[in-house]
Amino acid sequence: MKKIYFLLASAVISCGMQAQSIPNGNFENWSSATYEEPVGFSNSNFEAIFRCNSPANVVKSTDFQQGNFAVELTTVVGGGDTCFGYIVSSPNPQGGNPCNWPGGIPYNQAPTGIRGYYKSNIQSPDSGGILVAFRNNGVCLGLYLFKLGGVNATYTPFSFAFNPPIAGTPDTMIFAAVSSDAFSGIALNGSMLKLDSVSLIGVTQVAAMNGDFENWQSQTVYSPISWYPNGNSGNGLTRTTDAYAGQYAAEMTTYLGDNNGVPRANGGGVSTGYYVNNCGGPNCLKGGHPFTNQIDTLCFYYKYAPMANDTANVSIAFKNGGTTIWNQGSDVYGAAASYTYREIPFNTMATIDSVIVSFQSSQWGDTALVFIGSTFKVDEVHFKSQPLSTGISQYNPAMGIKAFPNPAADGEFTISNAGQFDLVRVYNVYGQEVRAKVIKANGEAKVHIETPGAYTIFVNSRGKVSNLKVIVGKE
User: Fold this and answer.
1) CATH of the domain at 451
2) CATH number, domain at 139?
3) For a Cys staple, 223 with which of 24, 50, 281, 320, CB 3.0–4.6 Å?
4) Beta strand pairing status for 445-448 and 139-148?
């Protein structure tokens, strides 16, 4: 009888370890990309690579009008989405009035216009373009948008006047260029705009503008496989080696953003789903993974360093047939300097076929600038019915963790030689967790199981997860 129990327990738990409903929930697998980007500009390469499954769509071109290089922007389609190529002298352009985008080039002159050279391969009704905005002490002094389109196989000059003229002397300038008509919501696959020798008219040129596109720098970015960062640029999401288990965890940081021209704190986040660009319908949330358990528990470990009284957020969206039918959110209050275990139980009360799990370093409503810098680290994300296998190994006597008596005839046994605050979890032969207990002192925990059978014990100890098998009841 004992042998049968052991075989069943091993088979079921092993199957549960492989059928993880949250792929890469331990954040051990990251994709990376290295590309060159023009100095002084944020750009669309992160979005193109990790969201549209495309090569970088902002590239250094040796097909120049003057000097050694030009910049080439291309609209690409892939991964169920469209990514237009863009560069902008702001670290986080988030819609709204470009005059209020954060950052920009320090600038104290009043030019009368802008000029340069371009090549293009853009089919109507699409068009590329450039944007220039000036402000002083947060007040917009001028905002100008010029379209560049058609098919131009040789470098063609352009010159645009700022009309009406800039209303005063600025302290900051924003310059941007895009391969498609993003402001009208038009973006055709393959639209290409190449720029070189862009300069302002009637003033001394500023090197920080990098309008001749001679200065480039190498950039390496990481994205967790099977997850998506909040937004398109990957702002606020990094890979950290400060992990609960394994080598890596996900780190989210709240950063300076913009909402219709108003500066705000944006929570860094990561999700197994994403929102489609230019989607206005009720089912714009895409992605997720197959999942049918109506009753279960989301489990994870986290660290949180909030600024002021900020609050992190965890949300779960359940879908059926592509439609979201149930959402559940949970807030994370207060600082946690060491990794802390958290459970979020749920009952969808309806049939589901997929799930999307999301984490964010601030709530959507936590927009006050004092929240910038809040840091949320997450690791070992899983459903209780499908535990992760990071670091799991068979019981090794050298670790010293024991379960006795075994068999436990009266249903009670002791876990010994573990560390304080280690987590003990007990699973039956069906892969269901029947007990969870934190060791509080002396490295021991007494566990009582009423139902006879074979059980697998997982002990999270010293950065590893070990398992032992225990028989409850008489043979």
Assistant:
1) 2.60.40.10
2) 2.60.120.890
3) 50
4) unpaired
